[in-house]
């Protein structure tokens, strides 16, 4: 255990109440970030109708969030290491406020796209900034559990961006909904600055807070040269992209085209898949402690995902309920994704945590783009001009995702193991 970890262990009991308060505020900020991420899905039809926006333009508008979010990761990592989560997160949230206002005032594609882009910049540290703060305020043995809990609570942001957002937009219009979100986000920015502290009182200020520009650049080079972080990034590049390709992209069309499910029933099954993911995120924190191995908890989840995807790919004419069971099981098994963040934390020295975590988060978003784009090309190969895609198209996608996961796992398993029980007792 390094000196920073010893200091965190020693100070936790004295600052338990303050640490838990900070964690609560970080959770609230992450809920807002998740809300912004998916909010376009509910209001897109109204936007397209009222502002005469094409489907192609709507795709660009929605994608702007992810483009600016990904582009901000490495600079945000430098800011987190240099200035800490408190100032970095609260300042960036102000950009999200501006983005929400611009979006609410927009009269066309340009305004909407600029607004979404500012939202992406503003939320760029919603998860990674929270993880940096958790690393400084809580003992190492709590990192995986708390990061998983943070992600699970963040799922409320997805839920708020569905029926509640639709209800608000129905009563006050989509512009009114984003004016309200601007106010909420401004309050969260104030709360982040007022409550969050970069480290417990008395804890040594990290080297990164005193870095010169040359040292900042050297730190970035050290992160890029970190061999084990590369293995983690390989897993990150594939895992979340594969999960979103199934749960967030192709599961709905698969249920529609192959099993003929209409809106409500299809939506219910997709909700079940998303719930299974959130349940799985917390379950894996217990699995890794039961195994006392982070690498093999992640590896076991990945192997199970490969098996489930392989069955979906290789077995023709699966009935609706066998297919549903396999996909729900995949949602559970794919939830090992948050443990990968915890593994990335372990291979990073304290003064490079911000840059290292944002680098592997950049791998996540690049992977989402690459995996989803490749899967779209695969489905397109089966386009025969009729409505919907044939079962063979989805089986090909499931097979591709299984092979990609297997390849990433082979790279990741070269990483050293982490024994959760040895990281520090979770008192």
Topology at a glance:
Layout: H1 3-12, H2 16-38, H3 40-50, H4 55-71, H5 73-105, H6 109-122, H7 128-137, H8 143-160, H9 163-195, H10 213-224, H11 227-257, H12 263-291, H13 294-314, H14 320-333, H15 337-346, H16 353-380, H17 391-412
Helix pairs in contact: 2-7, 2-8, 2-9, 3-9, 4-6, 5-6, 5-7, 5-9, 5-16, 7-8, 7-16, 8-12, 8-15, 11-12, 11-14, 11-15, 11-16, 11-17, 12-13, 12-14, 13-14, 13-15, 13-17, 16-17
How would the global form be characterised? globular
CATH architecture of the largest domain: Up-down Bundle
Helix content: over 70%
The average pLDDT score comes to 86
Unreliable stretches, pLDDT < 50, 5 or more residues? 1-5
Assign the CATH superfamily of the largest domain: MFS general substrate transporter like domains
How many strand elements?
A: 0
Number of domains: 2
Supply the helix-strand structural class.
mainly alpha
């Amino acid at each position: 255990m390094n000196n920073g970890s010893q200091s965190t262990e020693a100070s936790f009991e004295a600052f338990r109440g303050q640490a838990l308060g900070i964690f609560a505020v970080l959770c609230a900020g992450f809920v807002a970030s998740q809300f912004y991420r998916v909010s376009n899905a509910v209001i897109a039809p109204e936007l397209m109708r009222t502002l005469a926006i094409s489907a192609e333009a709507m795709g660009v508008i929605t994608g702007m969030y992810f483009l600016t979010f990904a582009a901000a990761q490495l600079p945000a990592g430098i800011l987190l290491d240099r200035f800490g989560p408190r100032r970095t997160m609260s300042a960036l949230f102000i950009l999200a406020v501006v983005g929400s206002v611009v979006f609410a005032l927009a009269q066309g594609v340009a305004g909407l796209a600029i607004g979404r882009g500012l939202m992406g910049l503003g939320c760029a540290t919603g998860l990674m900034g929270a993880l940096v703060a958790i690393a400084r305020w809580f003992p190492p043995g709590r990192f995986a559990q708390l990061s998983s809990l943070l992600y699970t609570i963040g799922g409320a942001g997805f839920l708020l961006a569905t029926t509640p957002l639709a209800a608000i937009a129905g009563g006050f219009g989509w512009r009114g909904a984003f004016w309200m979100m601007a106010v909420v986000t401004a309050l969260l920015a104030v709360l982040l600055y007022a409550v969050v502290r970069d480290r417990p009182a008395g804890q040594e200020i990290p080297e990164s807070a005193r870095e010169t520009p040359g040292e900042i650049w050297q730190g970035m080079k050290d992160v890029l040269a970190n061999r084990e972080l590369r293995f983690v990034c390989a897993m990150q590049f594939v895992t979340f992209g594969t999960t979103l390709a199934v749960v967030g992209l192709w599961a709905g069309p698969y249920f529609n085209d192959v099993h003929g499910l209409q809106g409500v029933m299809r939506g219910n099954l997709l909700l079940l898949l998303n719930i299974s993911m959130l349940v799985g995120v917390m379950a894996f924190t217990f699995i890794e402690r039961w195994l006392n191995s982070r690498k093999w908890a992640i590896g076991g989840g990945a192997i199970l995902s490969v098996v489930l995807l392989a069955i979906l790919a290789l077995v023709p004419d699966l009935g609706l309920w066998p297919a549903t069971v396999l996909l729900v099981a995949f949602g559970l098994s794919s939830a090992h994704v948050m443990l990968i963040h915890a593994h990335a934390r372990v291979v990073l020295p304290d003064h490079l945590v911000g840059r290292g975590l944002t680098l592997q988060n950049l791998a996540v978003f690049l992977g989402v783009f690459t995996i989803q784009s490749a899967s779209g090309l695969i489905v397109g190969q089966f386009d025969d001009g009729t409505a919907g895609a044939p079962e063979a198209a989805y089986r090909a996608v499931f097979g591709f995702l299984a092979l990609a996961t297997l390849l990433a796992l082979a790279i990741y398993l070269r990483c050293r193991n982490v024994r959760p029980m040895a990281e520090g007792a979770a008192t």
